[in-house]
Amino acid sequence: MPRLMPDAGPQRVLAASNFVYTVGSGLYLTAGVLYFTEAVHLPAGQVGLGLGIAGLVALALGVAVGHLADRHGARGVYAATLVVQALATTCFVLVDGFWPFVLAVCAAAGAKAAGTAARSPLVRHYGGDRPQEFRAFLRAVTNVGVSLGAVGAGWVVQAGTLTAYRLMAVGNALAFVTAAALLVLLPPVTPVPVTGGPRRIALRDRPYLLLTALDGVLAIQFKVLTVAIPLWLVGATTAPHWLVSGTMLTGTVIVVVFQVRASRGIDSPEAGGRAYRRAGVAFLVSCSMVSLSAGPPGWAAATLLLTAVVIHTAGELWHSAAGFEVSFALAPRHATGQYLGVFGLGAGLAEAFGPGLLIALCITWGRPGWYVVGAVFALTGLAAPAAVRWARRHTSHPEESRVDGKDVSAVIEYASTPKP
After folding, report:
1. I want to staple 275 with a disulfide (CB 3.0 to 4.6 A). Which of 293, 322, 357, 363 is the partner?
2. Which backbone phi and psi does 404 adopt, to 5 degrees?
């Protein structure tokens, strides 16, 4: 990245808020599950069930809160979701059984999903001519913040005491509150009222829903690096176990350095469709190489795995950049939060069901499962350009600017025109 922060202004405020937020997220992502199993002493099965329930709650809230952000102001709604996350995370220290755990993680996961949708109108409004590129920059910042949080979580796990884990939860909550407080420096975005149309227009947009589904299938790739490869490396290869950290670090550094650059060349939905296709092919190649790492000597297995991670991360860059482009470009400006909330459903489903699917195919089944997963990624990527073309025809149709007989584009133009 040529610079660590954007120029002074709303983009810098959003980037700073996002950075502080992701440092806190890095604490929880690295040591959160261990807190509930090692410190609270909940069975791993109950923790998995509770996280699954929280994932379903999060799916339900994203679209609704995105609509609220469109209609009532994204800054206030987004700040409210951060405060709810802080309160829910603070409640982690009070968890002493299964149902309190479920309530706390449902509140935290629901607020997180809602915050992602509520932030989208802010990114679009203050992202300049290319909000997709600014979104890519925020993803790079996210990786830096999560990495720093993971360092702090390493101390927590090493200490292994209840006090250390509770300090982690409190530190997480403080990060969320600070991220919300920074938003005070952000000028509010005046919502654009649209009346007379269906409140859930994104759920009626079938081409957009198809792209959401395709992106969701490809989003399972995020769990390949964090779930499938570590389990495969330890259980099926002779590569040194410290390489688990090496693969994670390799992927993180590549994303931090190249995500913005990768997004610059993907400047239209059609380019996004082609990027999805390249990503699918890259995932097929990387999955095949991971499969081949079982059997060779340790040095050869390590070489294959590291090469696979580099190729996989290149596909991740293309996949993320394609998602940024099509999700923003094909969403009407007056319903950005709602549309981006719908688009997040695909990633939410991948988050909820991806780990189990990868474990069943790649770990339990073994080598053939890697080829199946790679083929699914490739076929999904190949289908994306046609889905983008359908969505473009759908959105470019003259009737798309009308909702129940009312000219939405005219409403937007009037609302955004300076009045004497």
Report:
1. 322
2. 55, 45
Give per-residue pLDDT as tens, 294-325: 999 999 999 999 999 999 999 999 999 999 89
**DSSP string for 343-372:** HHHHHHHHHHHHHHHHIIIIIII-HHHHHH
Q: How many residues does the chain have?
A: 420
Question: CA-CA distance, 394 to 392, in Å (whole number)?
Answer: 5
> Measured between alpha carbons, how far is 82 from 88 in angstroms, rounded to an integer?
10
Q: What residues form DSSP beta bridges with 68? A: none
**Helix (H), strand (E) at residue 402:** strand 402-403
pLDDT, tens digit, for every residue of 59-108?
777 767 777 777 777 888 889 999 999 999 999 999 989 999 999 999 99
Q: Which residues are within 8 A (CB) of 248 and not within 5 positions of it... i.e. 6 or more apart?
A: 225, 226
**Distance, CA of 385 to chain centre:** 22
Domain with CATH 1.20.1250.20 in the chain: 1-190, 199-399+410-420
The candidate with the shortest Cα–Cα distance to 371, out of 318, 294, 297, 303, is: 294
pLDDT block averages, 10 residues each, the chain of length 420: 62 91 83 80 82 81 72 84 94 92 91 84 79 81 84 80 90 94 86 58 88 95 87 90 82 88 88 96 98 95 96 96 91 82 85 84 94 98 96 61 37 34
d(CA 98, CA 105): 11
Domain at 1-190: CATH code: 1.20.1250.20
Which residues are CB-contacts of 419 (< 8 A; sequence separation ≥ 6)?
none
Closest CA to 78 of 126, 111, 29: 111
402 backbone dihedrals φ, ψ, rounded to 5°: -120, 135
Tokens at 413, concatenated: 């133009």
CATH for the stretch 199-399+410-420: 1.20.1250.20
